[in-house]
Design a protein that fits this description.
Layout: H1 8-26, H2 29-32, E1 44-50, H3 55-64, E2 69-74, H4 80-91, E3 95-101, H5 102-106, H6 111-122, E4 126-130, E5 139-143, E6 147-151, H7 157-161, E7 165-171, H8 174-188, E8 192-193
Parallel strand pairs: 2-3, 3-4
Antiparallel strand pairs: 1-7, 2-5, 4-8, 5-6, 6-7
Helix pairs in contact: 3-4, 4-6
Amino acid sequence: MQIKLLPARHLARVLLLGALLGAASVLPAQARAPQATALAQGAAVSSAFSPSGDALALVIQAIDQAHSSIHMAAYLLTSSDVARALVQAKKRGVRVQVLLDWKGNLDEDARYARHAIGILRNADIAVRSIDAYAIFHDKYMVIDRRTVQTGSFNYTYAAAHRNAENVLVVWNAPELAARYLADWQRNWDLGRPVQLPY
């Protein structure tokens, strides 16, 4: 039997392909195949942009429309405007829960985030941090289990006034909201309650 050796460039391609196929086979089924979600009749979409547009205004509008619950996942939260809107929602009787990236919000240099988190904690809003990933880079809210606010927009002053960002709100889409909420709950369960020293 004769063994044929592959040139180095072909061998590298074969090894890379094998590694990719092997990695795909250990991923959960839902991670391998993105799922399309049909929007319910009556669903609507709003979009906004920053820094010259109304991205922050659309985020605040989505929070202000909440009647029963807000589940937030945030890489960064330094915006006092967003924190105050969440507090106002809580005062209206909305259940508000906030999940944050640990490093981005609670590391020693994160004083602006600690201020925003303090606003939430002083209003008795449940806040957890997560450090299960290199970065918890999510930026979304599930509102009333029917509406999803997402996009590149971090909940920060810089996102509203300096960065090029986008916000998308999908109103009245319970199937989409259920998918986001399942992701949020899985990560919430990995988080730890935030306690700020005073």
